[in-house]
Amino acid sequence: AGAVLRIQPLRTPRDENVYECVAQNSVGEITVHAKLTVLREDQLPPGFPNIDMGPQLKVVERTRTATMLCAASGNPDPEITWFKDFLPVDPSASSGRIKQLR
């Protein structure tokens, strides 16, 4: 089971807070906390990741190949992770249909 909390667009200081995730079932309950800090662009530390080229809206004919590009810079170089429906895309679970090229 999983859930995603999405806050868009972020507002300072209203959204800056401690959020908690509670998981419970008939056996028990557990809670974890996460502190969200919202920074203005001019407050970002040197080397903070930046999306240089994001994926574009695509319409592709069925049975054709779709290619989407995401390019980022930062120091150190950022790792890029693709998500679908708020979950990380796992190329190994796609029987070879989905590949992430670096």
UniProtKB/TrEMBL annotation:
Coiled coil: none annotated. GO terms for cellular component: axon; plasma membrane. PROSITE patterns: IG_LIKE. InterPro entries: Ig-like_dom, Ig-like_dom_sf, Ig-like_fold, Ig_I-set. It holds the Pfam family I-set. Residues 49-85 form the Ig-like domain. GO terms for biological process: axon guidance; dendrite self-avoidance; homophilic cell adhesion via plasma membrane adhesion molecules. It comes from the Eukaryota. GO terms for molecular function: cell-cell adhesion mediator activity. The keyword Repeat does not apply. Keywords: Immunoglobulin domain. PANTHER family: BASIGIN RELATED, ROUNDABOUT HOMOLOG 4. This is Ig-like domain-containing protein.
